[in-house]
């Protein structure tokens, strides 16, 4: 049980928590936050797993995650814009569900 | 054997500085927790914590033998002091100039 | 030397927990942001100690970034407030 | 020990963020989660990611969310159906368990990419392995990444249809003398920090992504203080700045084809210089793209107000 594996498992827990929040909430902002948690968990798993298998620093997954973090922030900004537009148009902050 | 005493002295001084810095952080947090309103809480944030960080930085500087690292640590301390001055000022400004924002019941709160 | 670092880290952790309680209680957004600022300063201290402990000099750069960017939240708080009032 | 504490802290902060009914509390806890993740990345020996997380988490994501949250109508936790809570808990738990099981079962990795990397590092023109991966060995990913950022920006511009006159953009000024005075000290400091990170990227943690994030934070700070960049600089210049990273990268990448090599091969004599040039352009573009995404968000608020 080394440091890397502990954090990989922590990332797995974070993924589960993110999925839990994503299903639980109707509110779009909360869903966005939950989705971000899911993303962070994935990043932790990627780096933690690669380094625990190798027992040392592995630059390749780190570079991948670095790219991923920047893209995740841009996606968050875009999603916030979508949420605002939706709120503006429909006057509510969650999606309507017609089939319920 | 000559270098023994100064090393011991240095290490104990460093330990003292680091631990008292940590204690000051705790004191600042207690202040943040116990003070009654926003404007007085700014004190805890900007005074005790910056002193605590300063002591920790001093302790770490004593432990290094590289000038670059020491200068960088000092720079970080100065930046944190400046930044917390600015943010403390802004938060207090916000809190005192917009007391109309105060109403608590609007904010859904569960405590 | 290691035990000094550990004791300091434990103290910083205690400070972090106390700050969390303030953020939890609020009651205003300004109080919560004050708590976040406090934790930012604590984070800088933790990073500096980790840099020494783990022999990871880049942690000092991270502390530098954190120190420079920690006040943006306070500015955002004030700026947003002012704009929404003026418009 | 400290690792277990960090993981517990991560989980409890994440759960609090999701479950607390107060939206502002959730926001501040989410920002703290970013801070804790920075510490985790340092513990994981990934200082590059820690730098990016610190810059993006506090400088951009936090500000964006704070900006949005003040506009959105607030409401408490919705009373959801019992079955939905059950499904949420069930799927969260099963995902965690499945992932943990997979992690513990993971076989040893047969391919040793890191050894190949160390062997080839001298040929890349830089001495920091992560920069070498990002801009030389896996430059294709980075090219696509800046393309994705551009796409996000274009989608955002498509979302808000009305073009604002410039007077409206410059916005209200903050009447705080101290803030305005300290800005004169702080902005050059941030630019200096971005330059330092860019320069450091060649041989130690740092690089275009972190520098771009700090640059974007500097632009956002200017904007928040009433010095709107898009009112000072012409729109065309901004557009060029947004595109320059992608275009330069593409030009350098494809010019190697003229010399009869495959796409994205640098001439090994000046690989270092080329990488620095591309990184400079990338820093500008990433900073401007993130900043433009922020201002688009900001302007949508004005429309709704």
UniProtKB/TrEMBL annotation, chain A:
Keywords: Cell membrane, Membrane, Transmembrane, Transmembrane helix. It is found in: Cell membrane. GO terms for cellular component: plasma membrane. The keyword Membrane applies. It comes from the Bacteria. It is a multi-pass membrane protein. The chain crosses the membrane at residues 6-25, 32-51, 63-83. The keyword Thylakoid does not apply. PANTHER family: ANTIPORTER SUBUNIT MNHC2-RELATED. Belongs to the CPA3 antiporters (TC 2.A.63) subunit C family. This is Na+/H+ antiporter subunit C.
UniProtKB/TrEMBL annotation, chain B:
Keywords: Membrane, Transmembrane, Transmembrane helix. One of its GO terms (molecular function) is sodium:proton antiporter activity. It comes from the Bacteria. The chain crosses the membrane at residues 12-36, 48-68, 74-96. This is Na+/H+ antiporter subunit G. It comes from Nitrincola tapanii.
TrEMBL record, chain C:
InterPro entries: MrpF/PhaF-like. It is a multi-pass membrane protein. It is found in: Cell membrane. GO terms for cellular component: plasma membrane. Belongs to the CPA3 antiporters (TC 2.A.63) subunit F family. Its main location: membrane. The keyword Transport applies. Pfam families: MrpF_PhaF. Keywords: Cell membrane, Membrane, Transmembrane, Transmembrane helix, Transport. GO terms for molecular function: sodium:proton antiporter activity. The chain crosses the membrane at residues 6-24, 33-51, 63-80. The keyword Nuclease does not apply. It comes from the Bacteria. It comes from Nitrincola tapanii. This is pH regulation protein F.
